[in-house]
From TrEMBL, chain A:
Upper taxonomic lineage: Bacteria, Pseudomonadati, Pseudomonadota, Alphaproteobacteria, Rhodospirillales
InterPro entries linked: DUF2849
Pfam families tied to this protein: DUF2849
Protein name as it appears in the record: DUF2849 domain-containing protein
Domain of life per record: Bacteria
From TrEMBL, chain B:
Cofactor(s) listed: [4Fe-4S] cluster; siroheme
Record key words, sorted: 4Fe-4S, Iron, Iron-sulfur, Metal-binding, Oxidoreductase
Protein name: Sulfite reductase
Source species, domain of life: Bacteria
Pfam families found in the cross-reference section: NIR_SIR (PF01077), NIR_SIR_ferr (PF03460)
Classification via SUPFAM superfamilies: Nitrite and sulphite reductase 4Fe-4S domain-like, Nitrite/Sulfite reductase N-terminal domain-like
Length: 97, 551
């Protein structure tokens, strides 16, 4: 099985966001709607790519995630950095909050 | 220094207002991201991993004190209190909000700055020697020609949609500090047999996924003819450069595929048509631009300063800083002071808002309000009285800006890498920090001598790894970062592209691998040899052996 969520950057400030169960966008990956399997993931990406969302977010795409003790964690390091912030500036990005 | 005329001022202000309207329309949903993206890129606005990034041009790496102070203010007002100086002599801000960027651009315009020519397939911001107008080894200040190139290239209607981006670098010194041989066009000032000053024109250098050292397309072009000649090259490139594949679209590929002889023939043929036209720049006009960059009012001083010598003798820290960071000036009694943005274990090229403001203040106090940005991601105060060096160093050192490591193993070029960049495949900054810490001991660095380590976090090579004496390229191997080492690269007048040593190293292994290379060099070097000299003498094998043994 492969779990996926949709991520994008928010238009106004460019920050990383995730598509939520309600169809909104959250800065917290743990609010993300999780698709299990290819069909569900594709449907979710199609929803996130709707033209009317072009004024909300930029560049939606799917990422692989794993359910761990602390919540959802991306499998690729690049996406882990996007959920946290620069590894060299732990005082910045979401990790600082 | 060059001051905007009314035309420049109007141009930049109009552009700022246009962008303000474009942002407004984007946020209102009147234009799509697809439509907006090329517009924002033409104004230096990228979308990176965590946020937008604004890249601000610092034409030919020259800043006035008020401009640097404004860059510090912008870091505080629109960003998170810092900026990152890049290998293109630019500065990048990592966290601006889209709707605030037009205001940031207005604040820039108010000090005669902008983000034009920092992105897109146009002629980019021209770079040059950071010691221009100060260096003892210089033939002539290259910046008047850089400024003329800027005026010729900015919004050039014919060259706004080139096959790909186009970078020009100029050196006025035989000792190339601007890496001109790895640019789309490199201009090396020299004198011909008749004693006239002009330029060797080098074409088709570049880094990225297909690195090349540029080839000489013309050995000498006079100053008056330089701009028509550049136009001829750009026309040939614009017409024949490939547009079918962005990875083969740079002029280096054209030069490689056609051969430099054919490119030369095409350029000369084009130039013949236009050389007597409006781009021929007369002596009077050139003199006007030379006057804009006239030397500051130097005092008539002896080159020996007793206090300077006394401070060196008494203060070890100052002595060390002078040894590595202070360079000979053409004016007796003055020196060029390099401000390292590479504190041990720090982030290469990053400066805080208050550091920028401090350097601005110090430049006013000690360097005629003149600051330079280097492609090696440091700052320079180009005109400091030797008598003032100790006071300058004391103030810099108190702000974490007095690191004595210029040209040493810890003076590492590093791109932002995967910590910030959407294109990166691996992180580069943390690796530079670990190497810096490993070699942090100053006496050891001094013993190792000049050693240029350059790190890129992807094949696009913004960290110039191909021309590092030791180059490191970060890649992604099945979701994990790993690092490929190249040896023997050189960005100077003896430019060469490094060769891949062999299989890559994991994040855990790579610093040890670098150290083993340095240890080998120390073991086998001959007197006076830098790492690159030893490598050139002995070749890859001894180094390969310490990296891989029997592997």
């Amino acid at each position: 099985m492969s779990l996926q969520v949709v991520t994008a950057n928010r238009l106004g400030d460019g920050l990383v966001v995730f598509l939520t169960a309600q169809g909104g966008w959250s800065e917290n990956i743990n609010d993300a709607r999780v698709a299990d399997g290819k069909d569900a993931a594709e449907a979710m990406l199609a929803e996130a790519s709707a033209p009317e969302l072009d004024v909300v977010i930029v560049g939606p795409y799917l990422i692989d995630v794993e359910q761990q003790d602390g919540g959802l964690v991306p499998t690729k390091y690049r996406e882990v950095l996007r959920t946290k912030g620069p590894s060299v500036r732990e005082d910045l990005g979401y990790q600082a909050v | 220094m060059y001051r905007y005329d009314d035309f420049d001022r109007q141009l930049v202000q109009e552009r700022t207002e246009q962008f303000r309207e474009q942002v407004k329309r984007r946020l209102a949903g009147d234009i799509t991201e697809e439509q907006f993206r090329p517009l924002r890129l033409m104004n230096g606005v990228y979308l990176q991993l965590h946020a937008y990034m604004l890249r601000v041009a610092i034409p030919y790496g020259t800043l006035r004190a008020d401009q640097l102070r404004q860059l510090g203010m912008i870091a505080r007002k629109y960003d998170k209190g810092y900026g990152h100086f890049t290998t293109r002599q630019n500065i990048q801000y990592n966290w601006p909000k889209l709707d605030e960027i037009p205001d940031a651009l207005l604040d820039l315009a108010n000090v005669e700055m902008h983000a034009i020519q920092t992105s897109g397939n146009c002629i980019r911001n021209t770079t040059t020697d950071q010691y221009a107008g100060a260096a003892a080894d210089e033939i002539e200040d290259p910046r008047p020609y850089c400024e003329l190139i800027r005026q010729w290239s900015t919004f050039h209607p014919e060259f706004t949609y080139l096959p790909r981006k186009f970078k020009i670098a100029v050196t006025g010194s035989p000792n190339d500090r601007a890496a001109v041989k790895v640019h789309d066009i490199g201009l090396r000032m020299h004198q011909n047999d008749a004693g006239e000053t002009g330029f060797e024109v080098i074409v088709g250098g570049g880094l990225g996924r297909t690195p090349f050292v540029g080839k000489t397309v013309r050995d000498f072009i006079g100053k008056n003819d330089l701009f028509s000649y550049l136009e001829a090259i750009l026309r040939v490139y614009n017409r024949f450069g490939r547009r079918d594949n962005k990875y083969k679209a740079r002029i280096k590929i054209l030069v490689h595929e056609l051969g430099v002889e054919e490119v030369r023939r095409l350029v000369e043929e084009e130039w013949e048509q236009i050389k007597d036209g409006s781009l021929r720049v007369g002596d009077e006009e050139i003199a006007h631009y030379i006057a804009q960059f006239a030397p500051p009012a130097f005092e008539d001083l002896s080159d020996d300063d007793a206090d300077f010598e006394r401070h060196k003798a008494e203060n070890r820290g100052f002595f060390n800083w002078v040894r590595s960071n202070v360079v000979a000036h053409k004016q007796p009694g003055y020196a060029i002071a390099n401000v390292s943005l590479k504190p041990i274990g720090g982030i290469p090229g990053d400066a805080t808002d208050t550091q920028m403001e401090l350097v601005a203040d110090l430049s006013e106090k000690y360097s005629f309000g003149d600051v330079r940005v280097t492609h090696e991601q440091n700052l320079v105060l180009p005109h400091v009285k030797k008598a003032d060096l100790f006071a300058l160093w004391t103030a810099l050192d108190a702000a974490g800006l007095g690191t004595a490591n210029l040209g040493y193993v810890t003076d590492i070029i590093s791109c932002p890498g995967l910590d910030y960049c959407a294109l990166a495949t691996a992180r580069s900054i943390p690796l530079s920090q670990r190497i810096s810490e490993r070699f942090g001991d100053l006496e050891r660095q001094h013993d190792i001598g000049e050693l240029k380590i350059k790190i890129s976090g992807c094949i696009n090579a913004c960290g110039h790894h191909h021309v590092g004496h030791i180059g490191i390229l970060g890649l992604d191997k099945r979701g994990k970062e790993f690092y490929q080492i190249t040896l023997g690269g050189d960005a100077s007048q003896d430019a060469s592209i490094g060769k891949i040593a062999g299989a890559g190293f994991s994040e855990a292994e790579v610093v040890d691998a670098i150290e083993s290379l340095v240890t080998k060099y120390i073991e086998i070097r001959e007197s006076g040899e830098r790492f690159i000299d030893t490598y050139r003498r002995v070749g890859m094998d001894p180094f390969k052996e310490v990296l891989y043994g029997d592997r």
